[in-house]
Amino acid sequence: MLCADCQERITKIECPNCGKNVYVLGQYCYECGNELPSESEDFESRILCSDETCIGTINENGICNVCGKPYSP
Asked: In angstroms, rounded to a whole number, what is the distance separating the alpha carbons of residues 3 and 11?
């Protein structure tokens, strides 16, 4: 499923409480209300946008997740 606003892929995980496979749309499972495990981003391995005025990071496609520019080392 893609986000209607930014077109980023929304991931699914299994809720540890109810066991249902749900989209990660927020902090809580929309089936049972239990808090979902947070995805810890590895800040050491992230690649910052090469545009020095942007605050984004480079996604797995080599594109900035904020401004959309391709990565340029």
From this structure: 10
